[in-house]
Every structure is written in C-alpha cells, then in structure tokens.
TrEMBL record:
One cellular component term from this protein's GO annotations in UniProt: plasma membrane
Gene Ontology MF annotations: G protein-coupled receptor activity
SUPFAM superfamilies: Family A G protein-coupled receptor-like
Subcellular location: Cell membrane
Main location: membrane
Region of interest called Disordered, as start-end residue ranges on this chain: 1-20, 113-134
Organism: Corythaeola cristata
Protein name: 5HT6R protein
PROSITE patterns, alphabetized: G_PROTEIN_RECEP_F1_2
Gene: Htr6_0
Length: 134
C-alpha cells in the first residue's frame, strides 16, 4: 500500500534539504577552519613542549635548537591574525569596521562615543551635565 503525498510535502522536503545542506556546508567550513588552526598550533608548539620536557629530564638539548623551536611557536602566534580573516567572514567584518586600512570606502567610521557606549553595559543614558554629576 502506498500513501499518496500532498503537493506541499515535496516542497517542504526540498526546503528542509536546502536548509540541511546550507548548515552542513557551514559546519564543514567551521570544522575545516578549526582543523587548520589546531593543526598549525600542534605543528608549531608540540616540538617545543616535547623538547622542554626532554630538556628537564636529560639536559641534552642545545640552547640554539630550543630557541628555534620557541620562535616556531611565536611564528604560529603571528599567523593567527592572518588565518582568521582568511577563513572567518565575521572576523573580516569586525576588522573592517574598526581598522582604517581594512574599511571599505562607503562605510562610516565609528565615533569614540559609539564605541564607548557599545562597550559599556549600561546602554544609552540621558544627557547629564557636569553640574548634575557634581
């Protein structure tokens, strides 16, 4: 026995497939970004930590080699500001909003007052004068 489908069911099915496909693409991109960041972190810092433990146990690691591994970790830290904008659209937007070198020509520059109001937890306040404060 087959149950006939209503005409609205295939449309709802294709809509849910599009919704699932869209979110699976986002999840795939997020996991790829996380994999790249974690992979670079482990490639850069794991040798440093292994060498650090080895140095504590046997004191057989040359100082110059230890310095090279330390700088490899520092290089990883300098790569993060490059990696994030490459893979994260929200990060690009935030940087473009606050850094003059990354701002598009049509975007307005945020004022210092709007930045301080955005960073404060109090929200908008009524205008107060110096007399009212003192």
């Amino acid at each position: 026995l087959q149950v006939p489908r209503a005409p609205s069911q295939p449309a709802a099915g294709s809509e849910s497939r599009r919704f699932t496909s869209k979110h699976s693409k986002k999840a795939l991109k997020a996991s790829l970004t996380l994999g790249i960041l974690l992979g670079m972190f482990f490639v850069a810092w794991l040798p440093f930590f292994v060498t650090n433990v080895t140095q504590a146990v046997c004191a057989c690691v040359p100082a110059s080699f230890f310095d090279v591994l330390t700088w490899l970790g520092y290089c990883n830290s300098t790569m993060n500001p490059i990696i994030y904008p490459l893979f994260m659209r929200d990060f690009k937007r935030a940087m473009g909003k606050y850094l003059p070198c990354c701002r598009r020509s049509g975007e307005p520059r945020p004022s210092a007052i709007s930045l301080s109001m955005r960073n404060s937890n109090s929200g908008p306040r009524a205008a107060t004068s110096l007399k009212n404060v003192l």
